[in-house]
Write a structure and sequence with these properties.
Layout (H helix, E strand, L loop, with lengths): L2 E6 L7 E4 L11 H13 L9 E8 L3 E2 L10 E2 L6 E6 L2 H9 L8 H41 L19 H4 L3
Antiparallel strand pairs: 1-2, 1-3, 3-6, 4-5
């Protein structure tokens, strides 16, 4: 899944997650959406919401690293180069706009994950069928090309004669 985590960097805070559409890259996230996500993240941070400006970091979910010795809620990153940061200043206009359009959902994430994996497997199977059909078509084409180059079409037993089928008459008249 293409999920990204937003977090107020130095503080303990609620996280905001963004699920991108299939095929969409995290480099393609619009600056306006980044600002909205940053404002939500800042507003949901206990300490961050009191500050004028905070640093919000975001990274793909797959880049998060959790080790057994870490405290609850503490995470690290597999690759620090994949962590991007935003400087967010409080903007009440954005927060009010977001509050008016707020829709709370409690999705069954496990079910959604299973559905997404099922869809991926279906797409992979369809791709495999297409690939197999293409291979069969190419193999058939290759056989047809070999048949055109072969002498098998010229060889016809009905036009052949054998000495065993001859009468002895031909040999008698020889001399």
């Amino acid at each position: 899944m293409n999920i990204h985590r937003f977090h107020v960097h130095p503080h303990s805070s609620a996280h905001v997650y963004l699920r991108l559409q299939p095929g969409q890259s995290w480099e393609d996230i619009s600056p306006k959406l980044l600002e909205d996500l940053g404002q939500l993240t800042k507003a949901n941070s206990i300490k961050g919401c009191k500050e004028k400006s905070v640093e919000v970091s975001y990274t793909p979910w797959s880049n998060l690293l959790k080790k057994s010795g870490m405290a609850a809620g503490e995470v690290s990153f597999s690759n620090n180069a994949m962590v991007k940061k935003l400087q967010i200043k409080k903007n009440n206009k954005i927060l009010n706009r977001l509050e008016k359009t707020k829709v709370e959902k409690f999705p069954d994430l496990e079910k959604e994950k299973m559905q997404a994996e099922k869809e991926k497997r279906k797409i992979a199977r369809e791709a495999m069928v297409v690939k197999k059909q293409e291979e069969l078509r190419l193999e058939q084409e290759k056989k047809e090309q070999e048949a055109l180059k072969s002498y098998d079409l010229i060889f016809d037993e009905s036009n052949m004669r054998s000495n065993y089928d001859n009468d002895g008459d031909l040999e008698d008249d020889f001399m």
